[in-house]
Amino acid sequence: MPWVKSPPRHPSLNPIANDCATTLMAAVSVPLTLTTDTRSPLVAARQNLLDLDLQGCEALVTELGHKPFHGRNLFKWIHKHGVTDFGAMTDLSLKLRSQLQEVAEIRTPHLVEDWPSADGTRKWVLELADGQRVESVYIPVLIPQERRHTLCVSSQVGCALDCAFCATARQGFNRNLTSGEIIGQIWHATRWLGESPSNIVMMGMGEPLANFDNLVKALAIMQDDLAYMVAKQRLTVSTSGIVPNIHRLAEVSAVSLAVSLHAPNDALRDELVPINRKYPLETLIPACRAYIGDNPRRRVTWEYVMLDGINDSLTHARQLIRLLEGTRSKVNLIPFNPFPGSDFRTSSPERIEAFRDRLIRSGLFTTTRKTRGDEIAAACGQLVGRVRDRAGRAPVRAGWPQPVVAA
Ligand code: SF4
User: Fold this and answer.
1) Pick the CATH number of 43-105 from 3.40.50.970, 1.10.150.530, 3.40.50.300, 3.40.50.2000
2) 59-82 pLDDT per residue, tens
3) Catalytic site residues?
4) What SS3 string covers 192-215?
5) Which site in 104, 137, 277, 348 is 20 to 30 Å from 196, CA atoms measured?
């Protein structure tokens, strides 16, 4: 079956587990009813074709005794046309379709919760084959006459990096997503949108560079002309600073780089982003400079969550200016999105403005993120979801918005 649009659609959309979503006016979530997954465990044991890139599909059909170009067609059916039924892949021979039926499946994530927000932002809770759940966030770009949308994608179930201000960190770490599970989020969004997302940010749950191989494979599928055709400049990988893998990424990809910085000195960053103890600023900054290289059109986006009384003084602003001197940069100030149990408060608008003005006066390109999707907890650091723990229990969090729909 080709892509099916799900009406009604919010025409109108932001990014992170350190960065996804914003401010709403009338916050009304509309319950949506979703079906439960009834697949057989046997089916789940087949090769999931979402895990295969173009070369993988070609290799599979070759192994089954067919010409490699059938692999191209298969790849296109899956990603371009959103077809999961081999029987509907009419330009594949009946024999190949029947063989595929035996050995493979297209195992897409199962949508269990759909959280529409009044501003068009939408959070999806997706269940994976083993019952784990991840979240992705769709954010329409609010530009008249221009149809753009950003998809914030998760790379892990939970996260091990324990950033102090992040709700996902409270979840702990369960496991890496496979490349097919990363792509599955884009497959689902594309099906819902009727077209590929124009921008993809790897800023959902988890640290993408801690799941390096699967990330790189998924990035290639996102960019493939026979799949989602997302330009590399429109693909952003956000990292808290796993320095060796920033270098590795530079060798295999030229996607945009965002760094969850959040502090202008090691002492503070050690507390807020503990991975800094392993990879301090004196290693992180040069790695980021090397990543963008000499290309004047490339720059690093620095994410900086504004925490009242913690990292938001003019002294911090001056330290940040010194730190980023000589690096082509964009600084993105993010008002902190409080969550139940968090010890932090967001900085006042006046403090954020003074901080931003100081950076701008120094010549740093600086924006303040408008948070969106507040009432559905789709905002920065709030992607935690009702992700199940290792025992399969969905955690209850007093004070969180309640699921619109539970599977
Ligand atoms: S703990 Fe840190 S690295 Fe992990 S999701 Fe949260 S902000 Fe990102």
Assistant:
1) 1.10.150.530
2) 999 999 999 999 999 999 999 999
3) 135, 380
4) HHCCCCCEEEECCCCCHHHHHHHH
5) 104
